[in-house]
């Protein structure tokens, strides 16, 4: 398995609806906000998952995925 965790500071805590991805806070919503969707899809394709949280103005995205699907 591959595990990756990324943290980023935010101006305000982000509300993350259960089972959904948060919306981008950038003005140009059509050019931003696709990265988490792609990571989620990739992780799920490789028997993994993506978890998101935001506490004390720190947004955290962590994913895990299987590296070898043959095992």
* N- and C-termini, Cα separation: 11 Å
Strand order of the largest sheet: 1-3-2
Alpha-beta content class? alpha+beta
Percent range for helical residues? Answer: 10-25%
- C-alpha Rg, in Å? 13 Å
The total of beta strands comes to 3
Please give the largest β-sheet.
3 strands, antiparallel
Mean pLDDT: 88
β-strand amount: 25-35%
DSSP helical segment count:
1
**In terms of per-residue confidence, which ranges show pLDDT below 50 for 5 or more consecutive residues?**
none
Q: Quick one: overall form?
A: globular
> What string, H for helix and E for strand, traces the elements in order?
EHEE
What's the layout of helices and strands?
Layout: E1 2-9, H1 35-45, E2 49-55, E3 58-65
Antiparallel strand pairs: 1-3, 2-3
In short:
With 71 residues, the protein is an alpha+beta fold. It has 1 helix and 3 strands; from the N terminus they run βαββ.
Structure description:
β2 and β3 form a beta hairpin. With 71 residues, this protein is an alpha+beta fold. The model has no long low-confidence stretch (mean pLDDT 88). The protein is 15% helix and 32% strand. The protein has a 3-stranded antiparallel sheet, covered by helices on one side. The protein has 1 helix and 3 strands. The protein is globular and about 40 Å long.
Q: Can you tag this structure with a few keywords?
A:
71 residues; alpha+beta; three-stranded antiparallel β-sheet; 3 strands
